[in-house]
Amino acid sequence: MARPDPLHTICADVGGTNTRVAFADGPIVRQETIRRFRNADHSGIEDVLRRFLAESASTRPPEAACVAIAGPVRDGLGQLTNLNWSIDREALSGATGATTAAILNDLQAQGHSLAHLDESACETVIPAPAPAAHAACLVVGVGTGFNIAPVFHQEDMTLVPPAEAGHASLPVRDARDLRLSETLARAHGFPAVEEALSGRGVEHLYAFACAEADQTKSKTAAEIMASCKAGDDPEARESVKHFVTLLGTVCGNLALNQLPFGGVFLVGGVTRAMQPYFAEFGFAEAFRDKGRFSGFMENFGVHVVTDDYAALTGCAAHMQELLKARATL
């Protein structure tokens, strides 16, 4: 008997703290099926998926399974960066009963989602000319960590190569950036982008701002953001400003590396927390500050993705594309 269309997929977005799971039909995530699980309550990704299936009211078993993880993926094996969990395609199939399985880096999944997001799911930070069809895009994720995913749209397929850009070194523009780089290197062995542009990076920049001001204060990232909003701590505002300008500089560098004429798409909880300060603290100016290429930077639009479930959509869209490609072979 022929398989009913569209493809019925179980999708999961696995972060360092929580995992979100849902069913999708074709590239469309069924919103009513989305569930969130605390990773601390489970022994691994397979355990989460088995619980989701056991508690689901669905009588149709998944034909495909796709998991997006916050960590590197190679040759069908994924390892979370900030949690001692791993999974491969065989284990994913075994846990779900799906005959087709795939594992993506979470930023790859975000990249696969772009063509399927509603217009209301993106807010424009820097406008740009309308892109040509199939123009390349770039996803930049700022949350527990930092990473990117270039996105190349072809006629029937979307290519999203993996990356680990958060572990490259921070750019140095001036003496203060050099002092920050040296401070991070002493504390962490290497001045990685992720040590400044991430959740813990907010705290590192605050500690740096306090040291620069001969202060000995300590705050969590949430407290720093609250103090910045309240205006009751000058070092909190300085650290948020430093974060925004560093993010603009790094994103501008990445745009020159990848030439994403289809747009730069910022994702992640820290991105959304910082967005209200982009205009005030000069994100666009830092993004475009590239010397004689500053004018060229106007070709790249920058947008913030506000859909918290975009990675699930990307998983579903990727599996549907795989099915279509295999059907033509």
TrEMBL record:
Keywords noted in UniProt: Kinase, Transferase
Keyword Transferase assigned: yes
GO CC, one annotated term: cytosol
GO annotation (BP), single: glycolytic process
A Pfam family: Glucokinase
InterPro entries in the cross-refs: ATPase_NBD, Bacterial_glucokinase, Glucokinase
GO molecular function annotation: ATP binding; D-glucose binding; glucokinase activity
SUPFAM superfamilies the UniProt entry points to: Actin-like ATPase domain
Keyword Membrane tagged: no
Family designation: Belongs to the bacterial glucokinase family.
Name of the protein in question: Glucokinase
